[in-house]
Structures are given as C-alpha cells and as structure tokens.
Amino acid sequence: MSPLQAGDAALLPSWAGGSASGNTFPAGRGNEAAQKGHYAEAVQAFTEAVKLNPREHRLFGNRSYCYEKLQRYEEALRDAEMSLRLQPGWPKGFFRKGKALRGLKRYAEAARTFEELLRLDSANAEASAQLEACRALLRVSPWPCHPQPCHPWLLPCGV
C-alpha cells in the first residue's frame, strides 16, 4: 500500500485539504509533510484536519501512517481502528492496523489483520509480505508476552 496517495487528499472536501500543491489546508499540509518525511509536522496537520472533519476515515489512516513512522504504535493503532470504524472494510485501514500491531510486537494479531486484508484484496503484495514477516517473527519469538498474566500461575514477561 502506498504511504499517502494524492487521491487521499483529492477526495476530501476542498476546505479539508484538497490536492493543490502548496496547500494551506490542514490535510494538504499533512500530505505534503508526510511525503517529505516530516511526520511530526504531518501529525499536527492531520490533527487539525480531524478537528474540521472528524468523520473522514482517510485522515485517521494518514495520521496512523505518520504515527507508525514515528514509532508511536499505540496512537497508530488507535487511528487505524478509528478509520475502520468510520469505513468498515477499508483495505488501507487494515494495512495501517496490521503495521501498528506489528510495531507493538503483537505479531499474531498483526498476522490476523493482514489475513483479513488479503481476504478483501488477495492481490495485495505488501500485505502478503507483511503477513509472511509476522509469521516468521512468530516462529522465532519466545511465547507471546502479556502485560497481565492470563492464569494465576503465569507471570507477566520481564518478571
């Protein structure tokens, strides 16, 4: 999945971002900043855009992408899940969610998310590669760490 596509901004109402170069609207500024690798700046712009248009799933998806690039995986996951609540079945939302889960080292959940994406879009090569990477990480990583023990006799990892 491409990071941010010009179409993501072009489909927004003109007041929310549009697609013109040198855009002064928040979503357009966010897209331009993200494409230049200025992810913190992009997060700020997408946050402004979300305030203007809180029902636009692409804004949450784009901000999720930026959070993931900043290794702020919890926030990336939150925004990916919001994008899917606003637009259930959105393939890019599943991709963003899977990447955030992988960043959180929740490999089994990430793999299930990429599998779900592949059910929607079986030709998605990036999702296939991410799924294989998650499966490989599951094979080599120790048993999944849980912040809280599942059973009284299990201790959380790191204890």
Automatic annotation (TrEMBL):
This is Uncharacterized protein. TPR repeats lie at residues 23-56, 91-124. Keywords: Repeat, TPR repeat. Pfam families: TPR_16, TPR_2. Gene3D superfamilies: Tetratricopeptide repeat domain. The keyword Repeat applies. It comes from the Eukaryota. SMART domains: TPR (SM00028). It comes from Calidris pygmaea (Spoon-billed sandpiper).
